[in-house]
Every structure is written in C-alpha cells, then in structure tokens.
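Reviewer 2 asked us to include a model.

Predict the structure of this chain.
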Amino acid sequence: MTVMSSCNAKIRPFTDRTELTCDATSPEADEVHEHHSLLRDYAGPGSETIIYWLEGDRRTFRGRWRPCGDNEAPCTLPRGHVGRHAP
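Predicted model (structure tokens):
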C-alpha cells in the first residue's frame, strides 16, 4: 500500500489570480510530475483540467502569495523566483 502525503506547493499558472494548491493525495499522482492540481470551470462551466508542474517551475511558491516586488521590471512571478522576470 502506498501512503501519500499532502503537499503545500502552490502555483499561479496564468497571469490572473488563479491559484492552485498541489493535491498530492489524488490518484492521478505519478512519478514524473511532482505536483498537480485540479482546475475546475476555467475552460468552461463544468470543465475539469489537471494542471501538472515540477518543483523547479519558477511559478511554484508556498504559503501566502507574495509578488516579485522588483521595482525595475513588472513581474507576475512570486517573490524569490529564479531566472528572468515575466511580464
């Protein structure tokens, strides 16, 4: 029997305020994708889309959303992200 633990990783997959929390207890978990979450009603009423992402995705964050905060470039990524800024 596999015991799955919960996961507190979050992602904002789009440039809007849509925020997803990893559902590591879901039966869709696999060994390739570290995180996944079910996005409901985004593509249309009643739609269900599974979003998969890796820990290294620069949109990954934990806790309360904190925007990048860099005054030199507007950025939609979370504070402390790696790599370049994203508009």
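The first strand starts at residue 9 and ends at 11. Strands lie at 9-11, 20-21, 35-40, 48-53, 60-62. We have added this to the supplementary material.
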